[in-house]
Amino acid sequence: MTVHISTEAPLSEEEIIRQAEAALADIARVRETVGRVIFGQESVVEQSLIAILGSGHGLLVGVPGLAKTKLVETLGTALGLDSRRIQFTPDLMPSDIIGTEVMDQDESGRRSFRYVRGPVFAQLLMADEINRASPRTQSALLQSMQEYHVTVAGERHDLPRPFHVLATQNPLEQEGTYPLPEAQLDRFLMQIDVFYPDIEAERRILLETGGPAEAKAEAVISADRLIEIQNLVRRMPVATSVVDAILRLVRSARPGNGHAEADAHIAWGPGPRASQSLMTCVRARALYEGRLAPSIDDVMALAEPILQHRMALNFAARAEGMSVRDVIAALKRDAA
What we know:
Strand order of the largest sheet: 3-6-9-2-10
Number of strands: 13
Distance between the termini: 19 Å
Oligomer: single chain
């Protein structure tokens, strides 16, 4: 079987199996401790962990009260990451995120500037209601997400590793918000939709939260261990059939490539970064589920969270009441 692997030195099959088994044990412990705190959001937890295992950022979209902030706090604790939270508001300035220079004066009266780091210097950053920040502030965060450093007064300051942003966005309330530009949306590895829990999960929420013995997350791995698992994900082999499925799916989502659904309903489609994101995330999902190599099923399972924020419908599709999910579902049927 022909496979695609990363450009790093290849690992032997025995070494991949050994490292994967150790990673599986650690991931299982993370899932267990997160599951004690977050109820009824299994797919959200899975996709959030896949985004982190894939060394990327995630955009959590859902109405208030669905434990998005609680999830990020719990993941930061379980993964042993230094996590911080920024509540975005329209008057938030770039310096409130990346930090600023202040003037100090020593005992001799000599003055000098000292850089004070902002909250972006964290390993897991919770960007709450990210669409409430002005474009100027969003651009400061965009540099951090893409370049993994910030620039203040011409000086570069590297962010800690690993560095992940899990941002939240309310899809209902749009007054006083600034829609995220397509360039920034494309930097999110996945858009993770957060829906209401089912009745049994909500019953468990009522019974197990708010009391004196409310469950708390605990650190089960360290940041260094997370980096090792992330490196393993990038080295996992991918079969040619899976690569072909990724290419068929992503390219079919671009108008002008001969797919009737895309030509009729899509204004603009995903670029090569979507293909790269799928390649990374199918590896992470395979490891998350205890497999040594991804399958075409992984591609189809991750198509919606990878593609939906990287494409837009045209006027005709919106007039017909279609959604991006409807179009992706049609593309998946033809690409499978």
